[in-house]
Structures are given as structure tokens and as C-alpha cells.
Specification:
alpha/beta; Rossmann fold
Length: 190
């Protein structure tokens, strides 16, 4: 049997994308294993999801570090100890800095709830609804030093539902879970 790619998922919230990735790994739909959850919000629900799945958690509070580099060096140490090969951002609400970018060149992937380059950054769904667009979507992209500016790997359109953020968010999450797994599987085959 082929060796599975070891991934770390970075998340800051409830972890629905984390759960979808973990389920895909367990089902064999993704030729990888989640070796570590990294979170900047130790009390976030995603930590409970990881613990229930038996996945180690590396939880750090960035404000407890003097610099962003010191924070990322602590994260990097945990990644190296877990022998992680790829980093997957799944609702991680921090910009990745030079320490991690240099350690994992072209091996950091993010999922974003809009059709980039439209509506980058926080509250992309709210931005789309406020702009009055009829279609938004989901983008999977490589991470670079910018905010949601890395090379796009895949996109899928999602209709804005009745100008409603919550209904549109539900539709986007349904698309995210499948698109992220399919895109990662394609990337890992290369």
C-alpha cells in the first residue's frame, strides 16, 4: 500500500471543512492522513472534532508570543515533529507568514468562500451579499504572502440565495466540502 501524505489542517472555528477532510481520509476518498490539527483558537469546536477523531491538536494563542515569527516557529516545530508534508487551511483566520511559507513552498492550500479575486479576506459571503451579486462561490488556491492572492487551483460557482448570508453560507459549505477533497486528491496525484 502506498504511503499516505501527512497533512496538517489549520482551523480557527467550528471545523466543518476539517470534519469533511477527516471523513474523506477515513473513507479513502483522499489519499492522505491528517497528522495534526493546528489552531490559533484553543477553545474552538474544531479541537473537539479533532480529539473525537483521535487526531493530535497543536493549539497556540498568538498573543502569547512576542512576534509573529516566534508564533510560527512554535507551529513549525509541531509540524516537523508530526512529520507533516502539506498544510491545509480550513477556516484559519490568520495570514501565513514567511516562516511557514519558506518551510512549505507551494505546499500550503487554502479554501475561500468566494470566486477569487472577488471578495478576499474576512466575511466574503457577507461582502458578496452586500454587493448585490447573484453568484459567488468557492475557490481552492495555493497560499502566498498575500491575502487570498495565491494561484487558483479550482473554483465552483454558488448562487446567492435570496440575498441571505446564512442560506448562502450553507450552500457554500456544501460545495466547499466536496471541492476541497476533489482538488486535494488531484494535487496529490501529481
Amino acid at each position: 500500500m502506498a504511503k499516505k501524505v501527512r497533512m496538517a489542517v489549520f482551523a480557527s472555528g467550528s471545523g466543518s471543512n476539517f470534519a469533511a477532510l477527516e471523513a474523506a481520509c477515513r473513507a479513502g476518498d483522499l489519499s492522505a492522513e491528517i497528522a495534526l490539527l493546528v489552531t490559533d483558537q484553543p477553545d474552538a469546536y474544531v479541537t473537539e472534532r479533532a480529539q473525537q477523531a483521535g487526531i493530535p491538536v497543536a493549539a497556540f494563542r498568538p498573543r502569547e508570543f512576542d512576534t509573529k515569527s516566534a508564533y510560527e516557529q512554535a507551529v513549525l516545530k509541531a509540524l516537523q515533529e508530526a512529520q507533516v508534508e502539506w498544510l491545509l487551511l480550513a477556516g484559519y483566520m490568520r495570514l501565513i507568514g514567511p516562516d511557514l511559507l519558506q518551510a512549505y513552498p507551494e505546499k500550503i492550500i487554502n479554501i475561500h468562500p468566494s470566486l477569487l479575486p472577488s471578495f478576499p479576506g474576512k466575511d466574503a459571503i457577507g461582502q458578496a451579499v452586500a454587493a448585490g451579486v447573484k453568484v459567488t462561490g468557492v475557490t481552492v488556491h495555493l497560499v502566498d504572502e498575500g491575502m487570498d492572492t495565491g494561484p487558483i487551483l479550482a473554483q465552483q460557482a454558488v448562487d446567492v440565495i435570496d440575498g441571505d448570508v446564512e442560506k448562502t453560507a450553507t450552500a457554500i459549505h456544501e460545495v466547499e466540502h466536496g471541492l476541497y477533497v476533489r482538488t486535494l486528491q488531484d494535487v496529490l496525484k501529481k
